[in-house]
Fold:
Amino acid sequence: MSIGGCDLNTFATRLNEVLTLSVPVRTPEKLFGRERQLEKIQLALHSPGRHVFIYGDRGVGKTSLAHTAASLVQSSDNRPITVSCDHDSTLESVIESAINQGQSRMQVDRFKTSATIGVNTAFVKAEARFDERDISPKRSIVNMAAAVEALNYLASNYSDNTVIVIDEFDLIRSDEQRARFGVLLKQLSDGDVSVRIIFTGIGQSVSDLIGGHLSSQRQIEQIDLERLHWTGRQCIVESAFEYFGLEIPSVISDRICALSDGFPYYVHLMCSKLLHECYMAGEVVTTVTRPLFMASLNAAVMSAEETLRSCYEMATWRDEHMHHILWAMAEGADLNRKKDHIIISYLQVMKLLSIEPLTQKTFDSRFARLRQENHGAILCHALVGKDGVRPGWYRFSENMIRGFVRMQAEKCGIILDFDRQYSAHTASIRTAAVKGVYNPLSSVERSVARLRRDDEKDGEENI
Ligand SMILES: Nc1ncnc2c1ncn2[C@@H]1O[C@H](COP(=O)(O)OP(=O)(O)OP(=O)(O)O)[C@@H](O)[C@H]1O
Ligand SMILES: [Mg+2]
Structure:
């Protein structure tokens, strides 16, 4: 059947079968490009006393990896338990939710015996309150010891191999509460409690999330989840278009992969909008075309996650020039960018638009505003260390925003180069080796850069 040959309901159902835009992936067949990480998690969770911590950027695919890994390690007699944290979560409240979820899923007969065991023995000693009048009693966990006991109870009664996913750990506001989970893992290991826990959290490191000294303990397998690599991105595109029997030219699929910046959400978003355009096209589509792609980009930007749209909107609604500065910021491969290099990108953008660039002074003042709250604080200083900020280096406040800015630029016909490495020579040499090409700055750009430095003296000339 051609893509346009079915009704809207059938199309929507098929689309959701192949693209999971708003829900995490749960099965290995749909989780692309994470084979290595899955293997690492499986190995870790088979080793007694070990748990996993998946950390990385927002939207990079942490929950999907956690759910998929959990489904592989959890024994088939029950489903993995999943708990999401919030700002006020405590160790007790999180474990309580896990236990209650486990209890509600346990078979009634199995539950009756096990609940009695739980009450008569360690549960009471551990000061856990337990309401026997209730058919499906809710356990109240009052301290760390009760949490350990409750998890022990779950391990022996829920399933042969019980996996708990503790998602969005970074949301817990209290440093103290987060650190207590490190202590819990140690106690689970000491007490030989055989539940397996997979944590996920937005962050640069586990030590940011649970505190320095606890993060390095041997109970934790750390998974630093990077943005999805090229092959993973391509697999998502290919599987979606193959499913609908459509040809997608490599220039278009490559562009989707590049614009996505390695965030699978964007790949799903662009693919689903493009498939929708193909579905709505007047004539039968067998091969995706550039006009369809451009129309789909427009739709993708319009229906992207609210947080991304509002951040971009706050930065740009007052002033047209802010778009250009942000597009310039999204060029190149480096996430941390030096202001000199951003200016080179900016000049290129303005050349493509045939618009006169801002003067140095006006550029500087607008650029500074992009770090302010009333502009969504869309940019921030990069390379911030213990000794303070390294001046002149900037980044998007969240890496995920860059993909959205790239889509905005492309939608307006500005084709940015995402491969160019502006930073240290070592980086350029590395790209040359990997890609077999080296993209030096053009002589025009070089002379502009030189000119710009001259301008720094009086600061009023065009940059
Ligand atoms: N490896 C992958 N292959 C295919 N799709 C993926 C992959 N990883 C994630 N996705 C998709 O990308 C989107 C975001 O994934 P997910 O929710 O797992 O990210 P996250 O890091 O948990 O995000 P957040 O930080 O917002 O919690 C989802 O739509 C999911 O279906
Ligand atoms: Mg998540």
Q: What stands out?
A: Residues 62-63, 167, 200 surround magnesium ion (ligand 2) (CB under 6 Å).
